[in-house]
Amino acid sequence: MPLHRLHGHRRLGRGMDAWRTLRRRGGAGMTETTRRKIATREKKKAAEEPSFNIVGTSPGHHDFVDKVRGTLHYAADWKLPGMLHGKIVRSEMASARITAIDVSAARKLDGVVAVLTAEDVPHNEIVEHASGGLGELIVVQPVLAIDRVRYVGEPIVIIAAVDQETADEAADLVHIEYEPLPGVFSPHDAMCDDAPLVHDAGNVLVNWRLERGDVAAAFAAADVVVENTYQTQRVEHAYLETEAGVGWIENDVVTLRVSTQVIEHATEIAQIIGLPHNKVRVIASYMGGGFGGKEDMTVEPYLGLLVWKTRKPVRMVWTRQESLMASTKRHPFTMHYRTAATREGRILAMEADIVGDAGAYPCLSARILFAGAALSTGPYKVPALRTRSRAVFTNNVPTSAFRGFGAMQVVLGYESQLDQLADAVGVSRTAIRDLNYVEKGDVITSGEPITTAVAVTETREKALARLGPPSPPSGPGKVVGQGFGNSMQPYGRTIWFRDHASAWVTLQADGTLLIRSGVTDLGAGQAASLCQIAAEVLGVPLEAISVYIGDTALNPPAGGTFATRQLYMSGNAILRASGVLRDQLAPVAATLLSAEPDTLIWKDGKVTTATGTSEVTLADVARAAQDAAVDTSVLHTWRAPAGRFDPEVGQGGTFPDYTFGTHAAEVEVDLETGAVQLTKYAACHDVGRAINPVRATGQIQGGAMQGIGYALTEECALVDGNPFSTLFANYLIPCSMDVPDVQVDLVESGEGRGPFNARGIGEPPIGPPAAAIASAIENAIGRRPTTLPITPERVLALLDDKRAEGSTSNAEEALGR
Predict the structure, then answer these.
(1) 392: buried, middle or exposed (CB in 10 Å: 19+, 13-18, 0-12)?
(2) The pTM is what?
(3) How many degrees, rounded to 5, is the angle at CA 519 between CA 302 and CA 331?
(4) In 10 A of CB 70, how many CB atoms?
(5) 636, 577 in Cβ contact below 8 A?
(6) If DSSP states are collapsed to H, E and C, what string results for 151-188?
(7) pLDDT tens by residue, 565-607
(8) Omega of the bond prior to 789 within 30 degrees of 0, cis?
């Protein structure tokens, strides 16, 4: 019989007292063994630290300068003479049969050039195989709805007119008749036997199962069982730049310059229009944010169709209201966790049941729910595991990629379980983690070992040190709490996709360098990082490097910018291409210098001997190479390690590697209003190697800010599929006045799988904030929030529940009750 079972909000006070004691000591509580481990690892790292010239510095790249000057052109900035303006007519119903579409009045309107319906689309299908065909339903999404609509905002008609006002007026003239159909708006309702079918194939898109060890026996032997349910919400990407682009025909090729994370959508666009693949070109502008919202196609198919039909340039820019209403959102997760442990707090087993609302169409839900399942245990040793993760269709707006990609929602679940387990067995929240952290060589959820450093303890200690001791309350009726949250986030695509990226580097005759890559830049410096890598290898000054990106006609393919994969994939491609080029040129330089090729130093635009007594410029080497018929250009394709995953047993290869981190938060709670004020915040991640520390720090700060909004204020509210958050007036993003400065520390373990052993850092910082803030609120009021966002109303409800139990805490004492 278990020593203690913890359900819902029931908890033991002993663990909280230990936690408060820990925080009064300013973060003390790490065991001496752990301290020695960290010290040994840091000493070894310092001894093995390689020296770099460019990597590890933070130069101001071209994109910095252009953004500050306001000269960087985003997709909506591009305009062409004689261009038309595009508009989408969207469904006003969540579930209905289309009985009639009348576009005659719109077509007659002066200035309207084209009005297209599904009948005008040569191939009216978008098909996602988001998990590589591993077990999900194959469901077709129409480009334009033809006989049925499945969510409010679904495209039905597209219009091109001489100006935006005319296009908008024409949209109002389109008449669509509907026959309402029963809808389903909760994934749990959708799984009922009598639920209306969103798609004839069924309402469950995919059902992942991961299982290892004897779960039943572990629970039977447990001294402690902790059980709870956690709910996350639907949220919006809220990028500065809405979905936008301009298209035209050039040399009989449909060319689209768009805000996209994936230029490889060109092949899908060609299929939709009915053109050969080489007749569609996609150019990615530098983006004002993507966060996964521009990983699926947005304006691309509609622009392509209108350009092809009208033979004129067409521009389409979604309004903010349109973007908030109809763009894909983050998946709401319902997560039910059970954790079994010994009386000392060592985890024996874990069960997790995860349900994600996919909305009306598949998009990338299968992959996202897989990530949730694979990361459901976080950075902890779990000998026995049973996880089920389902993506379920509803008549809500589709959900798809969003920074963190399913691995971030589960952070709230597994970190809450660890906190409550600490409370249940009466140890500190640092001690419970030290007892259960995974280590290098341990086998994780999927049955595969971790083969790189797990520096999660170091990140925790640095984050807690940055947070410092608790602040005093700012006034009566207010209480302060501190908490932290760990995370484990994959980077790179699931390895069964056999991912690859290509890069092309050319040393010009004057010693300058050209880099060409299909990488798209979301604003995080994806292109600039490639320049630093090439500069480090070839010794070309950064100001002598030009990088050309994001063009399917001119650049070798690099794959999309998502899954924190570009530094890992394109970074490795550039690293190897630059290395091959240097190896090709080294004998030429060695001949010029009368030295051995492997003794040369490549730096500052020159090649020198090891003694520094002789040197030649890279221009000298390039010209000599041309005279000697040695190529000064290299096209290289880097292929990520591949593997297999067996969905029947839930075991096999999953992700290439992981980034570990910790965030720590301090909150002040107003006990009369329930308002939560974030007063201090610190974040630390192991970046493996910081290619550019300023950019890595910026990624962590930006991800933390986005995660803070997710924790406290943001939610896309829907009622029976109808969106209620279609303006920033009622979709609440934190502003600079709402949050403190995010204090950042970096750990560099030197064991990542990216270039120079870097780890991905684009997605990881958004995972821990909700868990850290929930922990801090519980520290303040004695009750654990389990539903996001943590609004004042929900905080007050927690306080009311606690008072109803008759228990007291520092919250009641602060109010004098």
Answers:
(1) buried
(2) 0.94
(3) 60
(4) 6
(5) yes
(6) CCCCEEEEEEECCHHHHHHHHHHCEEEEEECCCCCCHH
(7) 999 999 999 999 999 999 999 999 999 999 999 999 999 999 9
(8) yes
